[in-house]
Amino acid sequence: MTSKKTIVDTLARLKKRFPTPGAMEFGDAYQSLVAVMLTARTRDEQVLKLLPGFFKAYPTVEKLAGATPEQIQKKINTIGMFRQKAKNLSALAKRVVGEYGGEIPGTLDELITLAGVGRKTASVILPYQFNKPAIAVDTHVHRVTNRLGWVDTKTPEKTEQALLALIPSDLSPTVNRVFVKHGRYICIKNPRCWACPVADMCAFKNKQLESPKDSEKIIADIDRREAELQLLREQAII
Ligand code: SF4
Questions:
Q1: Measuring from each residue's beta carbon to the nearest atom of ligand 1, which residues come in under 6 Å?
Q2: DSSP string, 17-28
Q3: Going by CA atoms, what residue is nearest to atom 1 of ligand 1?
Q4: Do 34 and 117 fall within a single domain?
């Protein structure tokens, strides 16, 4: 079983490599819940670009509850599944206003009763909006933690259970944040182990440690993409 020291050291090194918050970590619970919901099967960049216009039109959950799905669609029609997402946002807002007095509920059990909010969406916002231990496991977190040898699981659901048992709760907010970035830029399908800050602590058997000829260009591209994402994130906060 992975030791606590390995977990702490791995997360610390990755946090140093990727010091910025997660792409959707901003604003209040309403804003971040909307943002995370909209990222389902959609790139973060696309969602971040539409958020300023969306929150200008619907600055509060009450305003959103007063809109029809057709009106909401017009604000999000640049992303995939926008009709379904608009329908969910409308139902979610009405329920938050009707059942919770306009406050986004702060427990997993309540959050997943809201339209369009699954366990993963709820687990993204619980740690940083409500200070509750939760680990959102997407394909990046699932792949990276299996390669590292922290878990040995076949599905993201099993990975979530295993990580919740393994990771001390005070570290759980860091897990999604750093592994999503690490999985997006370095521990990709053909892993860039040559650029990995935790290669010496990784159990993956097929590490690719030899730097390619264009390694500097790849690193510069990673840093540029991350900087662009952070800029969009800052602009999404109105
Ligand atoms: S060493 Fe390679 S496989 Fe292991 S975490 Fe780093 S990039 Fe991923």
A1: 144, 147-148, 186-187, 191-193, 196, 198-199, 202, 204, 207
A2: HS-SPPTT--S-
A3: 199
A4: yes
143, 147, 222, best to mutate for ligand 1 pocket (most atoms within 8 Å of CB): 147
For ligand 1, what atom is nearest to the CA of residue 186?
Answer: 7
pLDDT digits (tens, 9 = 90+) for 89-138: 999 999 999 999 999 999 999 999 999 999 999 999 999 899 999 999 99
pLDDT in tens, 157-183: 999 999 999 999 889 889 999 999 999
Ligand 1 binding pocket mutation candidate from 196, 201, 206 (most atoms within 8 A of CB):
196
Claim to verify: residue 96 and residue 121 sit in the same structural domain: yes
What SS3 class is residue 173? Answer: helix
- The pTM assigned to this predicted structure is 0.91
Asked if residues 41 and 26 have their Cβ atoms less than 8 Å apart, the reply is no
Shared domain check, 229 and 139:
yes
Compute φ and ψ for 112, nearest 5 degrees.
-75, 0
- Nearest-angstrom CA–CA distance, 101 and 99: 6
Range of the domain at 34: 29-130
- CA proximity to 74, closest of 60, 89, 61, 94: 89
Of 111, 130, 149, which residue is a domain's last? 130
CA–CA gap between residue 45 and residue 105 (Å, rounded) = 27
CATH number, residue 141: 1.10.1670.10
Do residues 51 and 35 make contact, with C-beta atoms less than 8 angstroms apart?
Answer: yes
